[in-house]
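Re: the 78-residue chain
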Amino acid sequence: MRVVQSQVFDEMELVSVSVGHVGWARRAQGQRVAEQPLMPVRISREFWLRKHNLTHSQWQAATGMNPLTFSGGGPCPV
């Protein structure tokens, strides 16, 4: 997996993820990620991914819905 380009869209920085293979971490119950071998994953289509976490405030502004069952969240990631 390679990030081939980056662009800003509606104040969000996006990166392009290219086609290829990547090792994806997996964890068995009670084990740390570092203790497990990587699972091979194939990326079959290029796609855009947000570079930074989306906050609750940004999610609510974009969708009009609050993903929390309690009040607050604001700057916390979704």
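The chain has a mean pLDDT of 76.
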